[in-house]
Amino acid sequence: MAIEIERKFLVRKDDWRRPGQGLRYRQGYLTIDPSRTVRVRLAGEEGFLTIKGKSDGMSRSEFEYTIPVAEANEMLDSLCFKPLIEKIRYRLDHCGHLWEVDEFEGDNQGLILAEVELARVDEVVELPPWAGREVTDDPRYYNASLSRNPYRTWTENDAMTVAEAHDKTSQGETPP
Question: pTM, whole model, 2 decimals?
């Protein structure tokens, strides 16, 4: 069985930005259930169907299959829950780990998240200076959750929590 182990962080500052462009992603969900999700993704010019199991901390089962781009587009347009997740993904190396920074667009514009995949749950990761508060265990930041409850619909209190965490981590503080 394939296991995905990842940690997710809010991004602070713009220090992560590098010349060059990221890859545009468009993705949606065929099912959103606490015990499983089925995602359709268009990453650049490649289509994928992904089945993920229930999260257990920072790990969960994951199975991903390549599908034709035309079929991915058809499923995204006609079968997936709306709104779709739209983002640009940037890949950055930091101290031997590949970091993926997602700059969200559309209904989640203004949100920037970084994630790093690990080989083991206990693997040590040196955080880049632009990594803010860890949100691995906060389900609001799961892409499936953002498709049901987009960032732009968050209450002022929710948005303030993100902004405060951003401000505090930008100043080198650890938010509550």
Answer: 0.85
Mapped onto helix, strand or coil, the DSSP state of residue 68 is coil
* Domains assigned to the chain: 3-170 (2.40.320.10)
pLDDT tens across the length of the chain (176 residues): 588 899 999 999 888 988 778 999 999 999 988 899 999 999 999 999 999 998 887 888 999 999 999 999 999 999 999 999 999 999 999 999 999 999 999 999 999 999 999 999 999 999 999 999 999 999 999 999 999 999 999 987 665 556 555 555 445 554 43
Which residues on neighbouring strands pair with residue 85, listed in sequence order? Answer: 27
Cis geometry, peptide bond prior to residue 150 (ω within 30 degrees of 0) = no
CA distance 75 to 64: 16
Active site residues: 29
Identity of residue 131: A
Q: Position 157: which residue type?
A: N
